[in-house]
């Protein structure tokens, strides 16, 4: 099996499991386990904190001890074990503890798989966007499968589906991997590959700050997009289709990103992403209509996918192989976890005042991101 196909299948199977956990887990805790909305929200919020701690500290640590492939094996096995604990758990305390443990293990697979892809890109053995597009396809496929199965058999099946997806991921990862992913970190270099050393890389901190602002700005969309569409009187059976428009344009972007943007400067791509993100949230907030919301969904390819691609491109162009796990851990902790958690609270406060304000408030992040991106372009 060639490296492109091997990595594409890893992205596909991981994002299949992510397509179960991200959209459905809060509902699983409420409908299948009998928690209140407040209890489930509290558990998921602490889960985001645990996710950030794991990707910031635990994932880089184990990446300094084992090869990239072995790290994925360890995290997948730990995720399988912890998801089993959800089956007997029923009380708030037990579900709280198991969710913290699961959030510590499972989401770390995201930077682990991205790190493998980054290493292959560095060595000219992978087109990142082409493989990453299979991850988005896996997400969409599983969202549709789960919606059908839970509609027929109930929300209790969600945990079993997640368990099955993780077992599949672990089994497929047992295949022969690219040789570069089997190499253990060199002990002589570990001392020079600390998190602290990352900040000595020119422009790393600026790129990280831009990523934090742009990815965090999706908080209101992730948390309140569904109920906002209900505010716009969209029938429930159409809401899923509208939400999936963003994922479909993401798939199209990643499929062609290497071809069209692989030679661009990350600073230029981040500037475009910041402009697109600002326009997206202004459209949703200032023109509260269904057609405009649908149109704004096409900008997901810019606000999320292009920003993510630019960050990965910066890592592969400017960091040594051994630093990529550290950078991915920091990126996933700050940009994908903690900033989203904080801005979800801000978005919730604004949503209670006026639903449109939750999206308008995200511009507080995108405009500073644009200023930083323009500064980065001028500096370079």
Automatic annotation (TrEMBL):
Main location class: membrane
Entry-linked Pfam families: MFS_1_like (PF12832)
Source superkingdom: Bacteria
InterPro entries with a match to the protein in the record: HcaT-like, MFS_assoc_dom, MFS_trans_sf
Membrane topology, from the record: Multi-pass membrane protein
Annotated keywords: Cell inner membrane, Cell membrane, Membrane, Transmembrane, Transmembrane helix, Transport
Membrane-spanning intervals of the chain: 12-30, 42-62, 74-95, 101-121, 133-151, 157-182, 203-224, 236-255, 267-287, 299-319, 331-351, 357-376
Compartments in which it is found: Cell inner membrane
Domain Major facilitator superfamily associated, chain residue ranges per copy: 6-360
NCBIfam families: mfs, PRK11128.1
Official protein name in the record: 3-phenylpropionate MFS transporter
Species of origin: Lysinibacillus louembei
């Amino acid at each position: 099996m060639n490296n492109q196909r091997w990595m594409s299948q890893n992205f596909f199977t991981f994002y299949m499991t992510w397509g179960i956990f991200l959209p459905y887990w809060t509902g699983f805790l409420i409908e299948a386990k009998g928690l209140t909305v407040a209890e489930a929200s509290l558990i998921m919020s602490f889960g985001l904190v645990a996710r950030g701690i794991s990707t910031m500290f635990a994932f880089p640590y184990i990446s300094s001890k084992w090869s990239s492939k072995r790290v994925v094996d360890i995290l997948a096995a730990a995720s399988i074990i912890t998801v089993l604990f959800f089956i007997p758990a029923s009380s708030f305390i037990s579900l709280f503890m198991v969710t913290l443990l699961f959030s510590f293990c499972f989401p770390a697979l995201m930077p682990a798989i991205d790190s493998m892809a980054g290493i292959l890109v560095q060595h000219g053995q992978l087109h990142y966007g082409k493989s990453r597009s299979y991850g988005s396809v896996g997400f969409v496929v599983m969202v549709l499968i789960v919606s059908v199965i839970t509609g027929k058999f109930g929300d209790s099946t969600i945990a079993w589906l997640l368990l099955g997806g993780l077992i599949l991921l672990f089994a497929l990862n047992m295949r022969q991997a690219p040789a570069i992913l089997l190499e253990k970190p060199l002990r002589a270099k570990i001392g020079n590959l600390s998190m602290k050393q990352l900040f000595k890389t020119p422009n790393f901190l600026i790129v990280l700050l831009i990523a934090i602002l742009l990815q965090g700005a999706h908080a209101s969309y992730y948390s309140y997009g569904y109920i906002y569409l209900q505010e716009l009187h969209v029938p429930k059976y159409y809401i899923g289709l509208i939400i999936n428009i963003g994922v479909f344009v993401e798939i199209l972007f990643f499929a062609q990103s290497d071809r069209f943007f692989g030679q661009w400067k990350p600073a230029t791509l981040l500037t475009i992403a910041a402009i697109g993100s600002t326009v997206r949230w202004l459209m949703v907030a200032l023109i509260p209509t269904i057609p405009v919301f649908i149109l704004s969904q096409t900008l997901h390819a810019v606000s999320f996918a292009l920003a993510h691609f630019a960050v990965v491109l910066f890592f592969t162009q400017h960091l040594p192989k051994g630093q990529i796990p550290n950078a991915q851990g920091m990126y996933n902790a700050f940009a994908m976890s903690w900033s989203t958690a904080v801005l979800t609270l801000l978005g919730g406060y604004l949503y209670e005042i006026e639903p449109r304000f939750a999206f308008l408030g995200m511009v507080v992040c995108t405009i500073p991101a644009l200023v930083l991106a323009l500064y980065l372009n001028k500096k370079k």
